[in-house]
């Protein structure tokens, strides 16, 4: 009877560990997908000829 109880307890702990591991992996996947989305949004916002702030090009006294 003690052996059965120990076995049940062991598998319960293994199940808990696997569920916790699954939760951690899901959080990592969510963070990775969120970073990919942010990277895509940032690359869409960024134009190829974007000037740094305060460094606008001037022609004939007109800031472009």
TrEMBL record:
Annotated protein name in UniProt: Uncharacterized protein
Organism: Parasponia andersonii (Sponia andersonii)
Upper classification of the organism: Eukaryota, Viridiplantae, Streptophyta, Embryophyta, Tracheophyta
